[in-house]
Task: inverse folding
């Protein structure tokens, strides 16, 4: 594991940033999986170069109002709501 | 004195600002949802898959927001680079439903500008490091307590996606008063550009970086070596919501830091929260470091190449230039010129009036009478939009001697603002038309006949008698007579 590009501490740090609670065993397991995933990307180094499409620039829309979602529609997938608000756990 | 630091004891104050400005576009920055927030609107009533961060939704940049940013860049004498790009700033907090904020990182739309301010007569140039476009987060309510003790979070995404420009200054401020002057000036410029509405709640929000350095490190021009600034421990103060609050929050923070140093405590680099109601800053849980935001290019937003827009987009004459022109072209004193250029709408209104009347008459009416009465009523010039013609007719009535100045100012103008009536209606209702000469001559004779004692007093040289008789005539005329000519008519009659 020592030569792995991602160690358990780094996994734990990223999990903390995403407010995900991992125990040490989880962190070790994910570290190993990350190493495998990064290895898969090495395959891209073998892909021959091809001509790429020209890059788009200045893709914009006019400043005109379009109809969006109703409050009911906006909230319909929310696990919890209250008085038209999305409701979640307290945060600080 | 140019840029002398506020040097108390042996420390100098160094401040830099990050100013978040909501742009006055019709729609959000990456979707077509309206930005028009009604006071009593329902939560989550202005959203769509893009600003709710629903899977598969794609952002498309609002051209109006880009135009506004280019205007701001021009007004701040900033560079608009050939190419600018958007990044994702990743953080996990429910005010952004995507778990990242769309912003700009290493290629912002405006770079290296400046804004000149004047503080107690000293002119100071404040460097603008950059200004970039980004999306405003949604708003949170902490239910059942403060942020620390709440039992739940209620989330409203109506604000999410409102276009923001974040303007970052160099650490060029040497006192809290300078930051207030800068923010007031910035607001004025943004309003002139028509890209910002200061009356909207939360439309301008400020974070400030503040540190103390040895006063010896500040040279005569107020400059400080970069290495000294890098070594200084810096406090970031967040949650400042106006230019007045900026001065208060920073004054508090300066004295807090000085007291800490005085007691021998080391200052640490930290983020503090300005608590407006308590008037103090409080330490916040340490925030993520820059690397933790894992910035990366937003692949859904192609780069912008809008450097040439700087030439294509016109901006209006800015307040400083207009002030100078008012002094030069209309012969106004600088105080009147400042009042009359305080907002673009006031300046436009004045110039429209000045086209019809002598500029000095127009200046007195607009700067002294109108702005005074509006201010007293907590009204703005925009509240009388479309009533320029009524206001001109009022001035014309006075200029043509059909209404006394006193009645025009104290009765007609006030009623125009309070009741919304036009001047002619008010004059009819109050019977204020200047009385004709015959009527006044009759009142003079009546007053003399009815007050023989006063007439005797006048002839025996008593000073007050004439004033008393003038008062009687004025009363009979309902205030519509001109006191000067009444005085003269009375003398003629009494001395005959």
Result:
């Amino acid at each position: 594991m020592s030569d792995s590009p991602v160690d358990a501490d780094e996994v734990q740090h990223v999990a903390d940033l995403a407010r995900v609670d991992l125990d040490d065993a989880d962190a070790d397991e994910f570290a190993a999986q990350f190493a495998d995933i990064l290895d898969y990307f090495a395959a891209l180094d073998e892909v021959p170069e091809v001509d790429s499409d020209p890059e788009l620039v200045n893709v914009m829309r006019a400043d005109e109002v379009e109809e969006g979602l109703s409050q009911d529609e906006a909230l319909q997938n929310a696990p919890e709501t209250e008085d038209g608000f999305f409701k979640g756990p307290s945060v600080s | 004195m140019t840029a002398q630091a506020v040097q108390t004891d042996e420390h100098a104050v160094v401040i830099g600002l990050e100013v978040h400005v909501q742009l006055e576009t019709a729609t959000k920055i990456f979707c077509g949802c309206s930005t028009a927030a009604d006071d009593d609107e329902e939560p989550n009533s202005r959203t769509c898959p893009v600003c709710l961060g629903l899977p598969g939704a794609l952002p498309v940049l609002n051209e109006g927001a880009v135009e506004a940013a280019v205007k701001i860049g021009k007004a701040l004498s900033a560079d608009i680079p050939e190419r600018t790009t958007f990044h994702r700033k990743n953080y996990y907090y429910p005010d952004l439903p995507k778990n990242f904020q769309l912003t700009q990182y290493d290629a912002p739309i405006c770079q290296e500008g400046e804004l000149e301010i004047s503080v107690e007569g000293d002119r100071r140039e404040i460097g603008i490091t950059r200004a970039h476009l980004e999306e405003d987060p949604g708003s949170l309510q902490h239910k059942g307590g403060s942020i620390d003790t709440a039992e739940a979070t209620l989330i409203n995404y109506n604000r999410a996606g409102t276009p923001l420009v974040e303007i970052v200054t160099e650490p060029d401020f040497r006192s809290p008063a300078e930051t207030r002057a800068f923010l007031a000036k910035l607001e004025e410029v943004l309003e002139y550009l028509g890209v910002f509405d200061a009356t909207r709640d939360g439309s301008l929000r400020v974070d400030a970086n503040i540190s103390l350095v040895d006063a010896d490190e500040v040279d005569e021009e107020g400059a400080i070596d970069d290495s000294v600034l890098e070594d200084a421990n810096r406090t970031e103060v967040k949650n400042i919501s106006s230019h007045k609050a900026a001065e208060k929050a920073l004054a508090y923070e300066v004295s807090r830091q000085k007291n800490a140093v005085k007691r021998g405590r080391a200052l640490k680099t930290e983020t503090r929260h300005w608590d407006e109601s308590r008037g103090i800053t409080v330490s916040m849980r340490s925030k993520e470091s820059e690397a933790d935001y894992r910035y990366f290019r937003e692949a859904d937003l192609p780069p912008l190449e809008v450097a040439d827009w700087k030439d294509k987009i016109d901006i209006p004459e800015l307040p400083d230039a207009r002030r100078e022109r008012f002094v030069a072209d209309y012969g106004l004193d600088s105080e009147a010129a400042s009042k009359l250029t305080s907002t673009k709408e006031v300046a436009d209104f004045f110039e429209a009036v000045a086209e019809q009347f002598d500029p000095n008459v127009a200046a007195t009416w607009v700067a002294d009478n109108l702005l005074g009465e509006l201010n007293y009523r907590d009204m703005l010039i925009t509240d009388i939009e479309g009533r320029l013609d009524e206001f001109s007719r009022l001035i014309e009535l006075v200029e043509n001697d059909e209404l006394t100045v006193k009645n025009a100012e104290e009765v007609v103008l006030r009623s125009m603002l309070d009741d919304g009536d036009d001047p002619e209606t008010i004059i009819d209702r109050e019977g204020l038309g200047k009385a004709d000469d015959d009527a006044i001559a009759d009142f003079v004779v009546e007053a003399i006949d009815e007050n023989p004692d006063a007439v005797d007093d006048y002839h025996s040289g008593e000073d007050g008698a004439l004033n008393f008789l003038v008062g009687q005539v004025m009363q009979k005329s309902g205030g519509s007579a001109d006191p000067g000519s009444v005085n003269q008519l009375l003398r003629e009659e009494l001395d005959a």
